[in-house]
Amino acid sequence: MTETFSLPDNWQVVLASYPELRESAATVLAASHFILDWGDRQPQQLEALLASETIGEVYTFSDFEQALAERLTEVADESSLQQQLRQFRHQQMVRIIWRDLAGWADLAETIRDLSALADVCIQQSLALLHQWQVAVNGTPCDAEGNEQSLIVLGMGKLGAGELNMSSDIDLIFTYPEEGETRDGKRTLSNQEFFIRLGRKLVQALDSPTVDGFVFRVDMRLRPFGESGALVSSFDAMEEYYQTQGREWERYAMIKARAITGSEQAKQLLSDMLRPFVYRRYLDYGMFDSLREMKSMIAGQLHRKGMEDNIKLGAGGIREIEFVGQVFQLIYGGRDKPLQQRPILTILDLLAERNLLSDYAVNELKRAYDFLRRTEHRIQAWADQQTHVLPQEPEARQRLASSMGFKSWDLFYQTLFQLRQQVHEHFEQLLAAPQAEDEAATNNISLLNAGEEEKLQYLEQCGYQEPQACLEVLDRLLELHICKNLSQTGRQRLERLLPLLVQAAAGVDNADETLPRLMPLVESIMRRSAYMSLLVENPLALSQLIKLCAASPLISHQLARYPVLLDELLDPRSLYEVPERDQQKALLNQFLSSLDDDDLEQIMNRLREFRQIATLHVAAADVTEVLPLMRVGDQLTELAEIQLERVWQLAWAHLVSRHGYPPLAKGDDPAHCGFTIMAYGKLGGLELGYGSDLDLVFVFDDEQQGLTDGDKPVELIVFYTRLAQRMIHLLTTITPGGQLYEVDMRLRPSGASGLLVSPLSGFADYQNNEAWTWEHQALVRARCVVGDKTLAQKVRDVRKHVLSMPRETEALAQQVREMRSKMRGQLDKTDSQLFDLKQGKGGITDIEFMVQYAVLAWSANLPELLVYTDNIRILDALVETGKLEKAEGEMLADAYRLYRSEANHCVLQERPALVAISVVADYPQQVINIWQRWLGDI
């Protein structure tokens, strides 16, 4: 087009002074009759725009503010305000369109500038109109005399900062508090004052004059629509959305952004609206409502002309936005980053979270960019609000050229392919995945069928004991909560039960699995959105059946914490167990939506995160994706990550009250003068599913002085309170359960000792007072969180204590006596079953042998002091010649087998007892080495 377009004579004259714009002018004027016509009608404004050289500049928001403020300096009435606003708008539109068509601005800059233009026009015109109305009617105030202001909510594309070239603007008006005007010629209620002000603002922006208009204003999104008051107070808004807000209004409110008002008022309004838009739980209950909205969108596609509408037609802009906003409504309440407005940002986040594939997101983003740029070029021609492709050959060629294509056919081919891709993604969204299964299963309503019909159904499904299964179902259906379900809840249960019964019938232990599922169904009846999750997601349902069939522990956890069902949605991630750094990042993300001072919710989220992470480990364990040693490693790393976060919470609390201790370097746990020692399974990197944490707290008493805050305290007081708060955060039972049970009995002097030990006291106790069994425990002790320098000092104490010379026979006798006492009280071995932990030659015997070896020989073999876990200490015993290689391998294999079987017993919720045949001759081989080292067992 630029080759055949000739600049009009008047433009030739004007551009003679601006040769750097001549080439771009041919491109721009060929594609925008609006600019051509504006330049002809407003030569002075054109000259002023070109002379300002702003066409070549990237604008900031403050540039828009300054430019309009200069225009409005002398404005004294509404008529001149309207004139200046319109002239400013046209001049800025020419600048924005020019940069877009010349290829100097990308899509992000164009929509940012258009949105900024609207924002400053609203803000500065409202400021003047408010000032003028106050002069007549007084200042609107609340009951305490605080001045009130009109809050303008931008909705839709304006709210998201994604305005298009000829868009109207959707607004909602509100104000914080009821009251009345003061110090005016007459007294008005605040609502009447702001209704008058709102009307004047709409008129200033929307009314056509000889200079045109600024923006078409649409107020229909306000509460009660066109029949509602033009302006509502915050209280009235809250009441409306709590009692009458509809799902499409939640959808619309995703984009809402306060454009005017104080930061405090904006925040108050945002906090008030957020619970309406974003539920605190994953909102699968929205599927039906969203599907209805999708059907309405799809229904409009058949209207005449929609095939050429790039916004509302199939594969258009609206479908891309709908894809993103569906996920925002479902997940945004739990995932704060998803509470943003720009659609491209949301699509990237959906890819990061594996809610959409990278492939799908890239296609949607590419289509969005292309469609929005096409939309702008359609509108740039005549500054008209249209999204329809032109029909005339000349207009089509003009559009294709402005998009960089040689012909309409080449342009349309690309457009068609992109729209087709978008529509395919749109069609897949919210599809009813269970439709075929429901057709097969819903010929019976288990809620209404007779006993014979249900029994026959269970027999057809293949249950071995259909009568027992019928009794299980009947007990569920007789529950009070079941009989009193809402209509929606009852409909969801009616759809879910046949799917559940049929899916459970497909596993080998179907008759055991179905009863395990009933507590979960009872639990989710209270939150029927989770029934929707299982109905809507066949993969989630299949994983649920698989895990419940494998482990009653998992089924009970799912029933107790239905939020864990969210983890079943993606089998790819369900059986993935993240590495430590990734797990830490996931925890940070999990807590990111919470305010730092919302301790109750933080505690709940920490517990929920542990349950989720543990579910992943258990799922990988029961399906044998994860080997035994990694199970212990994962559960240990999880506990350490949680401990560090709990330390951060407790530390921030104490520091805010008392300041920092002398050795502390800010909030870095590596320099805090305090360390957490882990003993037992946590210390030995062998944490199990139900393990408690054996902890000892130590502080560095080489530091002197008080904390440096307004209320300074002695160090022992500070660190004791730190430990107390940590224990509180770990052990308090919340709706999410208990984070960890903590055992502090291994600290110096046990339950009668100090909660936090000074390093010198810890060293003195271990050297002079500790019993042999306490030194045995020290073998598995290590520092897991806290000051690195102090941790090294503790390791030095441990090394010194463990490597003290000992009389081996006396040591052996003490170890034998302690083990014999334990076995006599705890061993449940009989003629058929072997006690994995306490049986002769079992887990505890291997642990005692390792501990004996470290205490007896590390004085001359420091290699035994490097690690705290049994397997690597056994390796060290082989390397040092204390065990033959075959013996070391046997002990390690036996230990792994015992622990693996014990873990599985936990998952099956039964005692750690197995048939003697399972452990073969391992116990006797362990006993042989015990007898060689320690004598009679």
TrEMBL record:
- Domain named Glutamate-ammonia ligase adenylyltransferase repeated: which ranges? 24-267, 542-794
Q: Where is this region: Adenylyl transferase?
A: 445-937
Q: What class of enzyme is it?
A: transferase
Q: Where in the numbering of this chain does the PII-uridylyltransferase/Glutamine-synthetase adenylyltransferase domain appear?
A: 291-430, 816-900
Q: Which GO terms describe its molecular function?
A: [glutamate-ammonia-ligase] adenylyltransferase activity; [glutamine synthetase]-adenylyl-L-tyrosine phosphorylase activity; ATP binding; ligase activity; magnesium ion binding
Cofactor section: Mg(2+)
A Gene Ontology CC term for this entry?
Answer: cytosol
Q: Which reaction does it catalyse?
A: [glutamine synthetase]-O(4)-(5'-adenylyl)-L-tyrosine + phosphate = [glutamine synthetase]-L-tyrosine + ADP; [glutamine synthetase]-L-tyrosine + ATP = [glutamine synthetase]-O(4)-(5'-adenylyl)-L-tyrosine + diphosphate
In its keyword annotation, does this UniProt entry include Metal-binding?
no
Its function?
Answer: Involved in the regulation of glutamine synthetase GlnA, a key enzyme in the process to assimilate ammonia. When cellular nitrogen levels are high, the C-terminal adenylyl transferase (AT) inactivates GlnA by covalent transfer of an adenylyl group from ATP to specific tyrosine residue of GlnA, thus reducing its activity. Conversely, when nitrogen levels are low, the N-terminal adenylyl removase (AR) activates GlnA by removing the adenylyl group by phosphorolysis, increasing its activity.
Family according to the record: Belongs to the GlnE family.
What's the name of the protein? Bifunctional glutamine synthetase adenylyltransferase/adenylyl-removing enzyme
